[in-house]
Specification:
The complex is a heterodimer. By secondary structure, chain A is an all-beta fold. Chain A is 0% helix and 50% strand. Chain A contains no helices and twelve strands. In chain A, strands 2, 5, 6, 10, 11 and 12 form a six-stranded mixed β-sheet that branches. In chain A, strands 3-9-8-7 form a four-stranded antiparallel β-sheet, with no helix packed on it. In chain A, a hairpin with a 4-residue loop joins strand 8 and strand 9. The termini of chain A are far apart. By secondary structure, chain B is mainly β. Helices cover 0% and strands 48% of the residues of chain B. Classes of the chains: A mainly beta, B mainly beta. Chains A and B meet through strand 5, strand 6 and strand 11 of A and strand 5 and strand 9 of B.
C-alpha cells in the first residue's frame, strides 16, 4: 500500500526568505500523481501544485516549485520569497493512476509559520 | 462562483446527540466527496456521492454515519449518537467528473469542525 510521510510537523521562515517542505512516499507503481495542498486558517483546502510522475520536469507555479526525485521517492515543495499569506498547513498527497481522483493518500501535514 | 460551501463551520454536540453537516458543491459539479481529518493526521476518504446515489462508501464507519446527496439541495453527512472520537474536521469536495486518468482536481470546501463534549 502507498504511504505519504511529512517528517516536519512545523517549519518557520522569515518573510521574503525561501523554505522547503519535505515529503516522501512509498509506492511500487511507476506512474502516479503527487500534489501539494495548502490549508490556511480558513480551513479550505487549496491546490498549490501538481506533478505527474512521468514528467521529469519539476512543476512550478509562481513562487512555488517542487523538487521531484522519483528514484528517491521524494517530493519537496519550495516556497520562494515567503509572504505572510503563505502561513498555513501544507499537505502532500499521492494518487495512483488506477484510483479515482478522490482516493488521494495524504500526509499528516506541515504547519508553516512566517515570521514578519 | 462561490466554490464549495460547507455549513456549519463549527458545531458543538454532546455525546449521544446527532450532527448534520451540509455541503453544497461548486456550480456545475455533480460529484461530492466527504473526508475526515483527525488531529495531526491527513484527510481520510469517507464517501463519494452523485445525485441520489452513493457511489463509494468504503471509508464510512459501518455504524452511526450516513450520507446523502438528494436531487435538490446540499449533500448531508449525518452522524448519529456522536461520541468524543467523532470530534474532527469534516471536509467536503466536489468535481465535475471522476475516474479519468490524469484528469480533474478536487475542489474543497472550508470544512466543518465538529466538537463533541
Amino acid at each position: 500500500a502507498q504511504t505519504v510521510t511529512q517528517s516536519q510537523p512545523e517549519m518557520s521562515v522569515q518573510e521574503a526568505e525561501t523554505v522547503t517542505l519535505s515529503c516522501t512516499y512509498d509506492t511500487s507503481e511507476s506512474d502516479y500523481y503527487l500534489f501539494w495542498y495548502k490549508q490556511p486558517p480558513s480551513r479550505q483546502m487549496i491546490l498549490v501544485i501538481r506533478q505527474e510522475a512521468y514528467k521529469q520536469q519539476n512543476a512550478t507555479e509562481n513562487r512555488f516549485s517542487v523538487n521531484f526525485q522519483k528514484a528517491a521517492k521524494s517530493f519537496s515543495l519550495k516556497i520562494s520569497d515567503s509572504q505572510l499569506g503563505d502561513a498555513a498547513m501544507y499537505f502532500c498527497a499521492y494518487r495512483s493512476p488506477m484510483d479515482s481522483n478522490y482516493q488521494l493518500i495524504w500526509g499528516a501535514g506541515t504547519k508553516l509559520i512566517i515570521k514578519p | 462562483n462561490a466554490g464549495v460551501m460547507q455549513n456549519p463551520r463549527h458545531l458543538v454536540r454532546r455525546r449521544g446527540q446527532e450532527a448534520r453537516l451540509r455541503c453544497s458543491p461548486m456550480k456545475g459539479h455533480s460529484h461530492v466527496y466527504w473526508y475526515r481529518q483527525l488531529p495531526e493526521e491527513g484527510l481520510k476518504f469517507m464517501v463519494y456521492l452523485q445525485k441520489e446515489n452513493i457511489i463509494d462508501e468504503s471509508g464510512m464507519p459501518k455504524e452511526r454515519f450516513s450520507a446523502e446527496f438528494p436531487k435538490e439541495g446540499p449533500s448531508i453527512l449525518r452522524i448519529q449518537q456522536v461520541v468524543r472520537g467523532d470530534s474532527a474536521a469534516y471536509f467536503c469536495a466536489s468535481s465535475t467528473r471522476t475516474g479519468e486518468y490524469g484528469a480533474n482536481v478536487l475542489t474543497f470546501g472550508a470544512g466543518s469542525r465538529l466538537t463533541v463534549l
